[in-house]
Automatic annotation (TrEMBL):
It is found in: Secreted. It comes from the Bacteria. It comes from Zhihengliuella salsuginis. This is Peptidase M14 domain-containing protein. Its cofactor is Zn(2+). Residues 54-383 form the Peptidase M14 domain.
């Protein structure tokens, strides 16, 4: 473990640029495979008892990160935010907040998981990706490390993760439960985790990033097929906010990112993808979410006076740790699905394929007809 502040945690702002080709990193795709009519019935399965005994704990995460750091061939650095030098550096209950970096590239990528404590497999997927980047000597991973510096946060919410709940619990005597993914907004920042990771984000200034979540069991609109993965942008493409940011660049790039992931993952018979919506037909357009605030360029406590912003997307794997939601066979498939989604996006950005996608094909990703926008202040009906 690092014992001094990590200098790689504080790079200068870097410009988003095309990556070198790195297709070999992706898992093999069957040639000519077609999109599935329906997902594997066991992924996730509402039958059987949900077991959480194998889910990564805070202590097992630390142990795995330390193991990867000590055995990696290519400079994995594991450190706490205290070592990175942030003013706030622990969770509400006093747990250290961990980050792992790998790569020496001029461009930074922010990858976070488990901001909701009962959504476990984003964290495990990120640990799996970190291990690959830190140990594989193939040409694809070498090119990624040379181009990129990854900032990986497997467990944003360690307190909620330990209690298997969505929130963190304030330790100010109120015992208020705070959704950390609604806390990056002026007048909020109620939890110290929010203060800590916000400051780290301003230090890193990533070129783009991904947030990994879970959702409940879901059916595809129009087919009633089981959905295993939903693709989301927390400021709705074409909605009331995103087109006005970065001269519309984020409105284009975030759609291109998800079009590419949709095409690549639709080749797998066990994966069925749609667009993330809430309430059946509402597009999400919240400003208090972490990745939303990153795109908005939030300046909190004067730490981002120039209004730096980052384009961000999120993934939602179906099934969480609610009883009957994950099923006994879902863990490995959930993790593999997330890793494939991450790899397809990263290699697509690396090759420039993402930037060549038609953003209008966002409408081709299955979804219910939009009837409104789900905002911080309630639903805004579609005009």
């Amino acid at each position: 473990m690092t014992t001094t502040p990590c200098t790689s945690a504080m790079p200068a702002r870097r410009r988003l640029a095309g990556w070198a080709a790195a297709a070999a990193l992706a898992l093999a795709v069957p040639a000519g495979a077609a999109a599935p009519a329906a997902a594997d019935a066991n992924f996730p399965s509402p039958e059987g008892n949900t077991s959480i005994s194998s889910i990564m704990t805070y202590e097992s995460m630390i142990a795995e990160l330390e193991k990867i750091e000590s055995t990696s061939r290519y400079g994995v650095d594991v450190f706490t935010l205290a070592e990175a030098g942030t003013e706030y550096s622990v969770s509400e209950q006093g747990r250290d907040l961990y980050v792992a970096t790998v790569g020496e590239g001029d461009e930074d990528v922010w990858l976070q998981g488990r901001i909701h404590g009962n959504e476990p497999y984003g964290g495990e997927s990120l640990v799996a990706l970190l291990k690959e980047l830190g140990t594989s000597g193939d040409a694809a991973n070498r090119q990624l490390r040379e181009k990129y510096t990854f900032h990986i946060i497997p467990m944003y919410n360690p307190d909620g993760s330990e209690e298997n709940i969505r929130h963190t619990i304030l330790q100010d005597g109120s015992e208020a439960r705070i959704d950390l993914n609604r806390d990056w907004m002026e007048g909020k920042f109620e939890a110290v985790e929010s203060e800590a990771f916000y400051e780290y984000w301003t230090m890193v200034q990533p070129d783009f990033g991904v947030d990994i979540h879970h959702q409940g069991l879901k059916k595809e609109h129009g087919t009633d097929d089981d959905v295993t993965l939903s693709l989301g942008v927390s400021l709705a493409p074409g909605g009331p906010t995103l087109p006005s940011l970065a001269d519309g660049a984020y409105d284009v790039l975030t759609r291109q990112m998800h079009v590419h992931v949709y095409d690549e993952l639709s080749k797998y018979g066990s994966i069925n993808i749609d667009r993330y919506q809430v309430g059946g037909s509402y597009e999400i357009d919240i400003h208090g979410g972490v990745v939303s605030a990153m795109m908005l360029g939030l300046d909190h406590r004067g730490l981002n006076p120039e209004g730096f912003s980052s384009p961000m997307v999120f993934f939602e794997t179906s099934g969480n740790t609610s009883e009957g939601s994950l099923g006994q066979k879902a863990r490995g498939k959930s993790i593999k699905q997330n890793v494939r989604a991450l790899e397809s996006l990263l290699t697509g950005m690396a090759s420039g394929e993402v930037q060549q996608e038609d953003p209008e094909r966002w409408e081709d990703i299955p979804h219910a007809p939009t009837t409104g926008y789900f905002t911080d202040d309630g639903v805004v009906p579609l005009d």
